[in-house]
Design a protein that fits this description.
Length: 295
């Protein structure tokens, strides 16, 4: 059976490391990393995510601010808030919780954030730096995936990584991160997606498979190369009347059939999910350290 990659435990270790670095930053530079959250509307999932991120800030010793705006808030008001935070020296990271209401231009909001404070790593400047291999704030979920692979001692150099999914949030960034000619990368990367006539042609070639397509349990054990490493990014709600909430969480990979085939696999939940918040904390610390003059 596959080794279970415990993202929750690894994320806790990273947050402990961030807490220690934050303590030293406060002592040596007098700087407390500050993270500002903007939540528009009353999306229950977004509210939960922001609360979780706020608790993580408290745990690592950050200063955090959460501002909630009504669903019908004008786009200009959102942009004005971001502009205020861009100028605030106590705020080192800005996170606008996505998705936004349809009347707000998501790209305009992302581009309004000062790139040095873009702790989500979505600003075109940071995406461009990622592409050419220049140090920058990286998207949190892809950064978390790479960190899972590093801390599980998965060798990537020369290995075939297959990424299923091409989103700007996960698929494209992780593909670019892992093909860079540097340690913990230097892989041969294939990006495929649900437009493929037969996606298993690609998945069966993967030494490392990263599933980020947003469709529950599409990839089965029969579609995997024996001994591969499986990183399941998907978090999908599947109806399940036997559960108290009426649903269960499932990944993009059918865990039951994949586990006997893979050498290592992330569970859902408890795999990639906790790493996203851990890397948000790391990004915020990094932004504060850069602004304080620390390398």
């Amino acid at each position: 059976m596959a080794k279970i990659i415990d993202g929750k435990a690894i994320a806790e270790t990273i947050k402990q490391e961030v807490a220690e670095k934050t303590r030293l930053l406060k002592e040596t530079k007098g700087v407390t990393p500050g993270l500002a959250f903007l939540l528009v509307g009353e999306n229950p999932a977004s509210q939960v995510y922001v609360r979780m991120k706020g608790k993580a800030c408290e745990k690592v010793g950050f200063h955090s601010v959460t501002l909630e705006k009504a669903e019908d808030v004008a786009q200009d008001e959102v942009l004005d808030t971001i502009s205020d935070w861009n100028r605030d020296p106590a705020i080192h990271g800005i996170l606008v919780q996505l998705p936004l209401p349809s009347h707000i231009d998501e790209n305009a909001v992302i581009e309004a954030i000062e790139p040095r404070k873009d702790v989500d790593g979505f600003h075109p400047v940071n995406m461009g730096k990622l592409l050419i291999g220049v140090p920058a704030l990286r998207p949190c979920t892809p950064a978390g995936i790479q960190e899972l692979l590093i801390r599980t001692n998965v060798e990537l150099r020369g290995k075939h990584v297959v990424v299923v999914g091409r989103s700007n949030i996960v698929g494209k960034p992780i593909a670019n991160m892992l093909l860079q000619k540097r340690p913990h990368a230097n892989a041969i990367v294939t990006v495929c997606h649900t437009g493929a006539e037969n996606i298993s042609v690609y998945t069966r070639q993967a030494d490392v498979l990263i599933a980020a397509m947003g469709r529950p349990e599409v990839i089965t054990g029969a579609m995997l190369k024996p001994g591969c490493v499986v990183i399941d990014v998907g978090v999908n709600r599947v109806e399940d009347p036997s559960r108290e909430k009426g649903y269960r969480l499932a990944g993009d990979v059918d865990f039951a059939s994949a586990e006997p085939v893979a050498s290592a696999i992330t569970p859902v939940p408890g795999g990639v999910g906790p790493m996203t918040i851990a890397m948000l904390m790391q990004n915020t610390y990094q932004a504060a350290a850069w602004m304080a003059g620390n390398a």
